């Protein structure tokens, strides 16, 4: 069966800035509608939502009859599978509406209840259909082949049947599958506990901004404004205020994470996987060799000299003897970022992606014109960004745009996800319309690379060009190095639990600091509050072993973006076909069709060499402009 996480493709905003008078304290109804989602594309009214909700509950009862007849004949099998996927389509629409509504205002009791209702509905649905896979796997192969001969409509499920047989060793009997499906409510409760703690319960202090005025510190303002402030005092105050608040709840964070990790280990053992990493990479029909993640960590961690050199250049630009924890994301040479209003970003991104052809560009234009995007930060809005694909409607993009170059990059990134969702949904039946996270980030990061190539080629001002190149380097260190660092921590935490070692605030903090010290070398001095930084990363709590795929995707996207920008027509056709495939083919095969093999260290080493080359160019710009001391 398809993963329940198809709608949660999330990107945390690592760097951003401010220009507009939009603030995280504004309410959604204070923003011009053209910069908001049009959720009426999903449901025009609460009555329509309730109608579909009741219809879904009614039709869900029909699943019970399939327990007796799903393996009786080819026609019965086809009818039951058709019912299952019809309900999946309905559930995705309902769940997306709940997820999107909650994301706009996480403090709303109504939205929390809607989200919880949809979460409970998902658990109920997967409990109901939990018998399907075990019964199909238990079916005699020759009988299954006869069903397909008798009922030609089953040809739609031919690929799916092949995946089922491949997954046979990890599927339990019907009763056990139902029990595991029921247990997912524990997982959901733990994830909700993390969200409520971090978003609603922790009270962040006020700090003084660059003008000395008292301002609210929020998730969004910390990420988008204060950790990248050109004023070092503001950065330090924001760091100590934000992580001081998280540190005060360190035991609760560690307890939640301990519960989530042990739940994942329990699931992995129940399904006879070697460990939680293998369960995550191989499970849900993904079939991604877990050694790809280990190879990434091993290769990157052996090639950290360029990152150390980059941090040293940043230290010199900032005129510091030593970088502190609050200097890691400081802007280049303490200058405010160039302002990039949203409408300017819109035009630039559209111009950049024209190298992908008219069909691709039209999808981007439609996203802007038909309100697929919720643009600006508002009070209690989700502080990151994501794309949610809804099969029967269209993709939805959440941003927290604050008019910086980084925000334009995030816009391009999420539009890449949206294009992937759009083309996959338009070209595949629902059963194959989803795609794995492993390939998802390739589409988004390829958009980023094309945007930056366009910007570097068209910018004439040397100072602005330097800022653009700096942003490219920041993005690469954030995605290639930082996400691998996250992956090493995540793998380390799971391995500790698998060795029955205690996961608590102290042990997790020590693990985090040891890995950070390796990645930053002696270039960054970490304070005591840095021990809780891991709790700041929602991916650890919301989607296990997600982060390494950002790095592998960047390695692939570097190759793809360069060739696309240089008008490689053959690759352009292959790339658009890649976006249309969904899960019709295995993820590794899809990438190999683009000429890239992520099971080998070469693409990773190539990406690191690209970073080194760009860093050399940047260092030359810095020296020419007499900035480095």
Describe the 3D structure.
The radius of gyration is 24 Å and the shape is globular. α15 (342-352) crosses α17 (405-427). It has helices at residues 46-60, 63-69, 74-104, 109-128, 132-138, 141-150, 158-166, 174-201, 219-226, 232-248, 250-270, 276-282, 291-301, 305-318, 342-352, 358-369, 405-427, 430-433, 437-458, 462-498, 505-520, 538-542, 548-565, 569-580, 587-592, 602-624; strands at 9-11, 206-208, 214-216, 323-324, 373-374, 385-389, 395-398, 524-525. A four-stranded mixed sheet has the order 1-6-7-5, sandwiched between helices. A two-stranded antiparallel ribbon has the order 2-3. A two-stranded parallel sheet has the order 4-8. The longest helix has 37 residues, at 462-498. With 629 residues, the chain is mainly alpha-helical. 63% of the residues lie in helices and 4% in strands. The protein is built from 26 helices and eight strands. A hairpin with a 5-residue loop joins β2 (206-208) and β3 (214-216). The N and C termini lie far apart (59 Å).
Q: How many DSSP E strands?
A: 8
From the helix content, strand content and strand pairing, which structural class follows?
mainly alpha
Mean pLDDT, rounded to whole units? 91
In DSSP terms (H or I, runs of 4 or more residues), the helix count works out at 26
| Strand order of the biggest β-sheet | 1-6-7-5
State the separation between the terminal residues, measured CA to CA.
Answer: 59 Å
Question: How much helical structure, as a percent, in the residues?
Answer: 55-70%
What shape does the CA trace take? globular
- β-strand percent reads under 5%
Q: Biggest sheet, open or closed, and with what strands and sense?
A: 4 strands, mixed
The protein's oligomeric status is single chain
Low-confidence stretches: 1-25
- Rg from C-alpha positions? 24 Å
């Amino acid at each position: 069966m398809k993963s329940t996480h198809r709608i949660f493709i999330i990107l945390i905003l690592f760097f951003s800035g401010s220009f507009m008078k939009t603030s995280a304290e504004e309410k959604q109804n204070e923003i011009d509608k053209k910069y908001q989602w049009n959720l009426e594309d999903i449901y025009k009214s609460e009555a329509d939502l309730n109608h579909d909700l009741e219809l879904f509950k009614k039709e869900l009862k029909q699943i019970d009859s399939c327990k007796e007849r799903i393996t009786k004949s080819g026609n019965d099998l086809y009818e039951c599978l058709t019912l299952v996927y019809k309900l999946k389509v309905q559930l995705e629409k309902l769940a997306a509406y709940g997820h999107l509504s909650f994301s706009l205002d996480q403090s709303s009791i109504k939205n929390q209840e809607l989200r919880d209702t949809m979460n409970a509905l998902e658990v109920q649905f997967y409990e109901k259909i939990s018998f399907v896979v075990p019964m199909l796997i238990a079916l005699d192969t020759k009988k299954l082949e006869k069903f397909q001969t008798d009922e030609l409509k089953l040809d739609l499920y031919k690929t799916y049947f092949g995946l089922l047989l491949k997954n046979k060793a990890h599927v339990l009997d019907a009763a056990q599958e139902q029990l595991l499906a029921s247990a997912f409510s524990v997982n959901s409760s733990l994830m909700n506990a993390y969200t409520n703690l971090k978003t609603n319960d922790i009270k962040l202090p006020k700090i003084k901004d660059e003008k000395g005025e008292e301002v609210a510190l929020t998730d969004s303002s910390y990420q988008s404004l204060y950790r990248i402030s050109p004023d070092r005092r503001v950065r330090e105050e924001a760091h100590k205020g934000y992580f001081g608040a998280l540190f005060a709840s360190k035991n609760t964070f560690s307890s939640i994470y301990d519960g989530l990790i042990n739940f994942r280990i329990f699931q992995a053992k129940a399904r006879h996987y070697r460990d939680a990493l293998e369960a995550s990479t191989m499970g849900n029909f993904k079939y991604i060799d877990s050694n790809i993640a280990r190879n990434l960590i091993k290769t990157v961690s052996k090639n950290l000299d360029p990152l150390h050199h980059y941090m040293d250049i940043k230290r010199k630009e900032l005129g510091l003897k030593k970088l502190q924890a609050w200097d890691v994301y400081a802007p280049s040479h303490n200058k405010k970022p160039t302002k990039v209003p949203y409408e300017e970003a819109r035009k630039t991104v559209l111009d950049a992606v024209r190298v992908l052809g008219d069909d691709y560009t039209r999808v981007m234009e439609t996203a802007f014109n038909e309100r697929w995007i919720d643009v600006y930060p508002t009070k209690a809005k989700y502080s990151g960004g994501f794309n949610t694909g809804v099969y029967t409607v269209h993709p939805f993009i959440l941003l927290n745009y604050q008019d910086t170059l980084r925000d334009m990059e995030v816009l391009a990134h999420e539009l890449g996800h949206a294009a992937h969702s759009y083309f996959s949904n338009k070209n595949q039946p629902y059963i194959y319309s989803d795609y794995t996270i492993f390939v998802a980030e390739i589409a988004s990061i390829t958009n980023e690379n094309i945007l930056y190539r366009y910007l570097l080629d068209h910018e004439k001002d040397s100072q602005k060009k330097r800022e653009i190149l700096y942003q490219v380097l920041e993005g690469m260190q954030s995605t290639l190095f930082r996400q691998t660092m996250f992956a090493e921590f995540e793998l380390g935490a799971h391995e500790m639990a698998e060795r029955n070692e205690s996961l608590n605030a102290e042990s997790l903090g020590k693990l985090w600091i040891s890995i950070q010290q390796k990645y930053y070398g002696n270039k960054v001095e970490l304070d005591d509050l840095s021990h809780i930084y891991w709790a700041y990363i929602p991916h650890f709590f919301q989607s296990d072993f997600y982060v390494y795929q950002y790095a592998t995707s960047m390695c692939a996207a570097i190759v793809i973006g360069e060739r696309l920008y240089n008008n490689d027509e053959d690759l352009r056709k292959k790339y658009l076909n890649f976006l249309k495939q969904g899960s019709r083919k295995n993820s590794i095969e899809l990438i190999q069709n683009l000429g890239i093999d992520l099971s080998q260290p070469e693409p990773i080493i190539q990406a690191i060499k690209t970073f080194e080359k760009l860093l050399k160019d940047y260092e030359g710009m810095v020296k020419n402009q007499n900035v480095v001391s």
